[in-house]
Amino acid sequence: MNSLSAGVRNETQKIFLRRKTFIFLFLTAAFPVASAVLFSFVQRKSGFTITDSVNFPLLVLGLVVNFLLPLFIFMTASDVFAGEEGDKTLKIVLTRPITRLNVFVSKNAAVGIFIIIHLAVIFVASFLSGLVLEGTGAMQGLGEGLKAYIVSCIPMISLSFACIFFAQFFKSASGALTTSIFIYLCIKGLPFILPKLAKFLPFSYTDWYTLWLGHTAGIGNIFPAFMYLLSYSILFFVAGFYLFDRKEL
C-alpha cells in the first residue's frame, strides 16, 4: 500500500510538473470567465436571455465534458503512457522494484486526480464568473451545480480508461492522441446515424449528470447508466493492463 501511494504521488507530480498541465488549468479556468463575459455582453445588447447565474455552471459543464475536458484527458493519458514509452522513461520506471500492476494503477489514479482537479477548477470558475449574469442568485443553483460536477467525475474517469487502453498500441503521444480523438468523434457521431445504438456506446454518457438533476433524477434512470459506465470502465482497465503487462521495453 505504501508503494502504491508513493507511486500515485510520483505520477501525479510528474503530470503537474509539465508546463502543458498548467496551460490546461488556465484554459479551463478562463473558458467560463470568457463565456460569462460574452453572454453578458450579448444579453445586454440583444435583450435576449441565453442563460442566467443559476444555470450558467451547468451550461459550462455541458460544453466542457463533451469537448474541452475529453481533449485534455486524451492529451494527458497519451503523454503518461505512449509518450513515456516513446521517450524511454517508462522503461526506467519499470526497472524499479515495483510490479507493473502498481505502475499501471498509479498512472490511472494520477490521471483521475487530474480530472477531479480540472472539474473543481471549472466549477469554481463557472460559479464565480456566473455572478456577472442576470438571475435570481447563483446560490440558488449551487447544490444542483455541485452535484452535477461531482457525478461528472465518473464518466470522465471512464473515458480516461478508454484512452489509456488505446495508448497501449502506440509508442508516441501524438499517435495515441490522434487515434483517441478520432475514435471519440466517431462514437459520439454514430448515434446521429443509428440512434438506437446510443445507450450501448461507451462515450454516450459524458452528460449523464443530467440524469441527476431535477425531475429526471431517479434510480430507474441513473442505475442502468451507471452499470454501463462501470462495465466499460472495467473492460477498458483490464484490457489496458493486459496490454501494458505484455509490453517488452
Description:
This protein has one domain. Helices cover 73% and strands 0% of the residues. The model has no long low-confidence stretch (mean pLDDT 87). The protein is an all-alpha fold and 249 residues long.
Secondary-structure map with pairings?
Elements: H1 2-16, H2 19-46, H3 56-86, H4 89-94, H5 100-129, H6 142-151, H7 153-167, H8 173-193, H9 219-245
Total E-strand runs: 0
- Number of separate domains: 1
- Profile the largest sheet: none
The rounded Rg comes to 19 Å
The secondary-structure class comes to: mainly alpha
Distance between the ends: 26 Å
Q: State the helix count.
A: 9
Assembly status: single chain
Residue share in helices?
over 70%
SSE sequence, one letter per element: HHHHHHHHH
What best-fitting shape do the alpha-carbon axes yield?
globular
